[in-house]
Amino acid sequence: MKCYLGVDVGSVSVKVALLDFKCRVLRTFYERSSGMPLETLKKIFDRIPSSYEIFGAGVTGSGRNFIGKVIGADVIKNEITAHASALSKFYPSAKTVIELGGQDSKIIIFRKGVPVDFAMNTVCAAGTGSFLDQQASRLCVPIEKFGSLALKSKKALNVGGRCTVFAESDMIQKQQAGHEIHDIINGLCNNLVKNYLSNVAKGKDLEKPFVLLGGVAANVGIVRAFEKNLGAKMIIPRHYNVMGAIGMALLSRETKKTKFRGLDFRKYNLKKEAFQCRDCVNACDIIKIDVCGEVSHIGSKCGKYA
Question: What are 133-150's pLDDT values in tens digits?
């Protein structure tokens, strides 16, 4: 099976997608990384049949530089570019794309299938996957049921959503005052969406169709809150949580001769070394990577080790 590989290394999960030469999605993988992205990627690669022949590999996400160097990626791009690639191919009619990841949130504005504007959260992580996971754990509610509980609420409870600290404090106060858990969760979902629209989406020309991406798209409480505030239906793609990986697989199609080292990590002969550069006031923390004798560095602000 000849195919292209896309990898999205996020803050809380690792996503992998395999596309054939006709851009059809063959396999996708989504795994929580628990702070160990390289080990998680190894496990995913072990599950990919050896009959799959990789003709191009692309990596995105917060860990793209490190993982890209390790596996020999042909293309390394940021998340905006990766999602734009996937949406332009599979949802060209989309005009407003909302992506809620583990620790960040983004918006991409499309017109005629072309991304014309974008923004990311820069101050607060309220509304992202890790924050919702934290609150679900604190409330002893499985994250899979978090959204469905919100749908049971009929009250418009106001729960602070402008900051993770204030939101949690307000939730605790509401609990102590005797409010029902499903009303608190519903109020949190609504306020987190309002926070997103007033910060990340501030000043953007929001037009439908609206597409929601990222792991948080599985939270039906957040989906309902977006539809309520935007007054329009949200489109949830089939592969909503791996669209970044799909986008990188698409971008890797331009590769003429792949540098990908293969699915078997045992052949990588990987060595890592961390040190701090003392040559200037930046005092950069550098990671030295040696894969099969090919040495590269990550973390240099001035470009000395580029």
Answer: 888 888 888 888 888 888
Q: Nearest 5°: phi and psi at 12?
A: -125, -10
If we measure between CA atoms, which residue out of 277, 270, 272, 260 comes closest to residue 292?
A: 270
Q: Which CATH number fits domain 2-83+245-266: 3.90.79.10, 3.90.1150.10, 3.40.630.10, 3.30.420.40?
A: 3.30.420.40
Q: What is the pTM of this model?
A: 0.87
Alpha-carbon torsion angle 190, 191, 192, 195, nearest 10: 130
Q: Tell me the DSSP string of 144-195.
A: HHHHHHHHT--S------S-HHHHHHHHHHHHHTT--HHHHHHHHHHHHHHH
CATH T-level fold of 92-236: Nucleotidyltransferase; domain 5 (3.30.420)
The tens digit of pLDDT for each residue in 188-241 reads 888 888 888 988 898 999 999 999 998 889 899 999 999 999 999 999 999 999
- In the sheet with 234-235, reading across from the earlier edge strand, the strands are 114-120, 105-111, 96-100, 210-213, 234-235
Residues 288-298 as b or e (16 or more Cβ within 10 Å = b): ebebeeeebbb
* CA-atom Rg of the chain in angstroms: 21
